[in-house]
Amino acid sequence: MGSPSSAAPLLVPQSSPSGATAVDFVAFPAAGTGASGFRDWRETLPADWRFTVVNLPGREAGYGEPFATDMAALADDVAAELRAARAAAPDAPLVLFGHSMGGLLAFLVAHRLPVDGLVVAACAPPGIRRFELGAEPPSDEALRGDVAEALAAAGVSALFDEAGEGLLDEMVDLAVPVLRADIELLTTFRAPGTPLNCRVLALYGKDDPLAPAPWTSETTAPADRSFLDGGHFFVQLCPADVVAELQRWLAPVPEGVR
Amino acid sequence: MPNVKDSGDAPDGGLVPLIAAVFGRRLQVPDFGADDDFFGRGGSSFLAALCVADLKKAGLRLAIQDVFLAKTPRAVAERIESPQKVG
Q1: By the CB < 8 Å criterion, does A118 face chain B?
Q2: How many angstroms separate the CA atoms of A165 and A160, rounded?
Q3: Residues above pLDDT 90, as percent of chain A
C-alpha cells in the first residue's frame, strides 16, 4: 500500500524556525484541495512554529499520479513520512490540524503516532456522516455545480469574468476528479475502536450548516470546542482568526503532555 | 521541491523568461527560475489559472493543465512549442 518511491511526497514543508521549534504544526487540507489550501497561513503562523502541509496523491505537485483509494492506508503513509520528519525536532509538541475531510485523516494519523494535540476544523466527529455515502456516487454535473459554487464563494468566479475565456471551466474540469476521488476516499473511512489520548480542539464556523457536534467521546483527554466567524471555509478565509484561537488553546499546555 | 540551482540560464531567450516572470509575479517569488516547480514554490490551481490568463493576454496558447503537467517555466515552454507532446 506504500507510495511508489517516485511519487511526490505527502508532506510539503512550508516554513521552519531558525531557532528552536515551539510547535511542530501539520495541516491537512479539505476535500478537493491540495497543499496550496494553506498558502496564506505561512505569514500568519508564529515564526517559531514549524509548518508542514499534507498534499494528497494526484494533486498539485503530484498531479497525474493515482489518487489514494483507502483512508487507513493513506493514514499509514502520512504517519510514516511524519515519523521520519519528526527526527529533525523530536521534542517539539506535535499538533495536527485538519480541515473538514482533512480532520478525519488527521484523526486517523493521530491514532498512529504520539501527538500533543489534534485540531479539527469544520469536521463532524467520526460517528456522524457528513455525506450520504455508499448509495451512488454524485454525478459529474452535481460535482461541477459544487466546485463552481465553491469558486464563487471564494470570489474566484468574479476574477475570471475579466481574466479570460474558459478558464473557470478549465478549473472546474481539473477539480472535479480530485473532489470525486476524495468523496470516494471518504467512503473508506472507518473509525478506530479506541479513543485518542491527546487534547482535541473542534473549530466550527458560525455560519456553517454543519452541526457543531462535540468531540468529547473521541479522546480520554479534554476536548474543547470553539466557534469562529464564517462558514465551512473559514480556515481559508480568516486564517488569522484561526491561528489566534490555536495560540489561545495551546498556551496552557504544560510541557510534555502526551 | 524548488530547484533553485540552474535557475539563471535560459538558453531559449523567448518563452521561458516570460513564463518565469509571470509565475514569479503571481506567486510573489521575484527570482522564479526556469526550472523551479510551480507547486513547489507555492502555486495553486487558482494561481495557475491567473498565470494562464496573463500568458494568454501575452499571446500564448495554453491551458491550465499545461501548468499542472509541465510545472516549470522551461517545461511549459516546451509544451507550448510542441503541443502534441504528452506528459
Answers
A1: no
A2: 8
A3: 62
Chain B residues with CB-CB distance to A under 8 A? Answer: 37, 39-40, 42-47, 49-50, 52-53, 56-57, 63-65, 68-69, 71, 87
At A44-88, the pLDDT tens digits run 999 999 999 999 999 998 999 999 999 999 999 999 999 999 988
CA B5 vs CA A121, A229, A249, B15, B67: distances in Å? 38, 43, 41, 20, 20
Nearest chain B residue (CA) to A13: B1
Question: Nearest CA to CA, how far is B8 from chain A (Å)?
Answer: 22
Q: Which helix (H) or strand (E) holds B49?
A: helix B45-57
Q: How far is CA A108 from CA A115, A116, B8, B48, in A?
A: 11, 14, 43, 32
Long-range contacts of A235-238 (CB under 8 A, 24+ apart): A235/A30, A235/A37, A235/A99, A235/A121, A235/A122, A235/A203, A236/A37, A236/A40, A236/A154, A237/A154
Interface predicted TM-score (ipTM) of this complex, two decimals? 0.77
pTM of the prediction? 0.86
CATH architecture, range A11-130+191-250: 3-Layer(aba) Sandwich (3.40)
Strand partners, A95: A25, A117
Q: A164 and chain B: CB distance < 8 Å anywhere?
A: yes
Residue-level pLDDT at B5 = 41
**Cβ-defined contact of B39 to A167 (cutoff 8 Å):** no
* Per-residue pLDDT tens digits for B45-65: 889 999 999 999 888 999 999
- For residue A207, what is the DSSP state? T
> What residues of chain A, 180 to 219, have a C-beta less than 8 Å from chain B?
none
Which has the closest alpha carbon to A188: A101, A99, A59? A101
